[in-house]
Amino acid sequence: MTVNLDWENLGFSYMKLPYRYLATYKDGQWQEGVLTEDATLHISESSPSLHYGQQAFEGLKAYRTKDGSIQLFRPDENAKRLQRTADRLLMPQVPTDMFVEACKQVVAANHEFVPPYGTGGTLYLRPLLIGVGDIIGVKPADEYIFTIFAMPVGNYFKGGLQPTNFLIQDEYDRAAPNGTGAAKVGGNYAASLLPGKKAKTSGFSDVIYLDPATHTKIEEVGSANFFGITADNEFITPISPSILPSITKYSLLYLAENRLGMKAIEGDVLVDELGKFTEAGACGTAAVISPIGGVQHGDDFHVFYSETEVGPVTRKLYDELTGIQFGDEEAPEGWIVKVDL
Ligand SMILES: *Cc1c(COP(=O)(O)O)cnc(C)c1O
């Protein structure tokens, strides 16, 4: 490897890599995508993505295995989710083949930036779909840009898995009951910046949002889904049309049932019934699994397993998932896509 970075101490920061993928949609169809060295987008000042939030993004990682090869984890699921998001925002779908092929091209072109096996680092891919062009009225764009850039990111927990505390704030929602909560769009994140800042200022790692209609059920963390473990060997994760369907979450539901012999359930998680959970965590591509120590809700502070120790089931799930992602454990059919160099 010719690139020499401090692989053990990578954070989650933008890094301008040599290549990114760029395709444009014009006259009702996708033009041939290319790899480009230009890291700047040139778009009309009136682009609907800038004014009315007609944009979507994705997030996935490429992993270096023990034998030095590189692989993607379920990229077809990211493609399908981006298609559902595109439908919700009246944007053209990026076909699954085009999406996965573009991911492979970006990883292969920047392969020297995929962190070595054993450092915990990965190459994070950020696909972006935006409406562009000279339209100022509130309507969908005629032209779109689909781009994927990449950056090496570090292990989320440098010193190993570590529980952190989360805050529930009744005065904020991240999404409306029938809004865009299930779509991976920037607008949901815009709504979460202020509550997120308040939580962080008060010493919490992030916000846990309740269902926007009744504020009685846990929905998710601002950028990760919630799960709880019960003493009856159940893995429970909330179900709601305003939760962003996390691919990590669905992977854990499968692994809990098929590898850990648990009962995997998507159902209501009442904020008044947190006592039934012996462990809890937040899951997503960036954080993988983030154990939840305690949750503050009004004057009530509830600790799940421990504020300092990671529960045994959370650790097993983490080891199983990351074992598959880094190629140490056998993957369920179709979960791993190799990148040819
Ligand atoms: C992307 C995202 C997640 C995590 O989804 P993964 O597919 O597991 O990465 C969870 N919640 C929100 C709001 C997200 O945007």
Automatic annotation (TrEMBL):
<dbReference type="InterPro" id="IPR043132">
    <property type="entry name" value="BCAT-like_C"/>
</dbReference>
<dbReference type="InterPro" id="IPR033939">
    <property type="entry name" value="BCAT_family"/>
</dbReference>
<keyword id="KW-0100">Branched-chain amino acid biosynthesis</keyword>
<dbReference type="InterPro" id="IPR001544">
    <property type="entry name" value="Aminotrans_IV"/>
</dbReference>
<protein>
    <recommendedName>
        <fullName>Branched-chain-amino-acid aminotransferase</fullName>
        <ecNumber>2.6.1.42</ecNumber>
    </recommendedName>
</protein>
<keyword id="KW-0028">Amino-acid biosynthesis</keyword>
<comment type="pathway">
    <text>Amino-acid biosynthesis; L-valine biosynthesis; L-valine from pyruvate: step 4/4.</text>
</comment>
<comment type="pathway">
    <text>Amino-acid biosynthesis; L-isoleucine biosynthesis; L-isoleucine from 2-oxobutanoate: step 4/4.</text>
</comment>
<dbReference type="InterPro" id="IPR005786">
    <property type="entry name" value="B_amino_transII"/>
</dbReference>
<keyword id="KW-0663">Pyridoxal phosphate</keyword>
<keyword id="KW-0808">Transferase</keyword>
<dbReference type="InterPro" id="IPR043131">
    <property type="entry name" value="BCAT-like_N"/>
</dbReference>
<dbReference type="GO" id="GO:0004084">
    <property type="term" value="F:branched-chain-amino-acid transaminase activity"/>
</dbReference>
<comment type="similarity">
    <text>Belongs to the class-IV pyridoxal-phosphate-dependent aminotransferase family.</text>
</comment>
<keyword id="KW-0032">Aminotransferase</keyword>
<dbReference type="InterPro" id="IPR036038">
    <property type="entry name" value="Aminotransferase-like"/>
</dbReference>
<dbReference type="InterPro" id="IPR018300">
    <property type="entry name" value="Aminotrans_IV_CS"/>
</dbReference>
<dbReference type="Pfam" id="PF01063">
    <property type="entry name" value="Aminotran_4"/>
</dbReference>
